[in-house]
Amino acid sequence: MIAGRYHDQTKHHFNRFARSLGYLDWTTQPDPFRRYRGAPFVELPRDPLAAETSYSSLFDNSVAPVRVDHGSIGEFLRCSMGLSAWKQYAQTRWALRVNPSSGNLHPTEAYLVHGGRVFHYAPREHGLEERCALDQETWHRFVGPAGQAFLVGLTSIHWREAWKYGERAFRYCQHDVGHALGALRLAAGMLGWRLALLPTWSQKDLGRLLGVDRDGDYLDGEREEPECLAVVSPHDPSTWARRDHTSIATAAAAGVWQGEANRLSIDHVEWPAISEVAEATRYPGEAPSNAVVPRRDRVSSLSQTPSHLKARDVVLSRRSAQAFDGRSTIARDRFLAMLDRLRPAMPPWDVLNWPSQVHLVLFVHRVEGLEPGVYAYLRHDGVLAEWQRAMRPQFLWACVAPSLYLLVPADVAPTAMRLACDQAIAADGFFSMAMVARMEASLRERGEWFYRRLFWECGLIGQVLYLEAEAGGGRGTGIGCFYDDPVHELLGLTGHAWQSLYHFSMGIPVDDTRLMTESGYPWEATPPAPPAAVSPR
Asked: Is pLDDT above 50 for 531?
């Protein structure tokens, strides 16, 4: 199995890291912004339409839907794939985005299909580049007479991550697809909309729709790998899940396209392992009769989230922490409420069309009322017996809260730090975690294409935790560098049945005062105020 071989090949070990250059070649650093020269540019409205949406309402589908139009689409993209801030140190200036990315390298590009036109989103300018006009009759037959729906597609530019991370970069690109799916689903929720993946679209058909399969448009520009397509609408997305899309893909292939992709780097290093795993894990699509969009309408009952928090403020203030203070704590109830957000019974988990395959191993450092140690958190309880059989027989499995089990009581900060490539950020927060996925059985049952989906699920977990950290006055950070097999050895996992795919940590950040911060866009006079900070204890 190519995906399994790639996964083993790109593991970090105590005595060696996965293959990469081992240094940063600044002369080939990729441009973080893709543009299409010659494509007509459409400026998006800038009005903050979702300013009063409460943060807690993102998780219960309670927001009254706004009309799908040019203005609301602008707000949707601004609060999902737009810029959140600019940072500057000395003469170096760089952008941060609403959707997180490994190393802030942003391999994920977003496309929009609305009104029978295919657009590329340009986040720096907050506008749309029109790439193609589809046959209008064909489009209206697909979307329906009311037109209150549009499609959003995601692609990956592997080189952006490979420039820094080498062969392991494919993993990080897939994390970022999951981050982006979470950002898109929650931005849709701010406007009262639903968002769900369209399972009938193969990656080949998606490439045709988005135009990323067009050789002539990428003569110098780096190629993009189609990842997924979702429908966004105020209405039940299952209406579109089972529709035959052949006519739309055909119309795109026959359309008149505009724009040529810009070149991001003057030179490249090829990583054949990435090309091989990308080809092996491409999604073939499902037959319309088998396509299902899950319905999850449970209302969140979390009382620990402050009711005054506004979703837009939390979303736009999200940052990745660079360091934690190593002494602050989090209340037990707040910690458990964060974990409950990860249960697949509420948004944004309705964006995924498969049962949860990822569960959590927690390294608890400073949670009030919880003993430091290694814990297991099960995102659905049916996996308990399976994990008990797979892990060390010495583990306690003492249930300390719903779905939360103490495995080993101990000061695990040094262990967490060592496993996370000796990064102090894994030890200095409230807690860190490993996201452990059911890999071997998932790929065997579904196919190698599901390898990507496991990382998407991890990225979506990370996106929810990022926002929960901001809402609670802290900050989170994803950790892609960890020693894979030593994590498994600690837990007693053998073989490939369960694999650690992503790590995360949360705490009170220590900010770098040397950095200057500006708002994401010049027309936003000041960045949104972050939630009130939690006082260190």
From this structure: yes
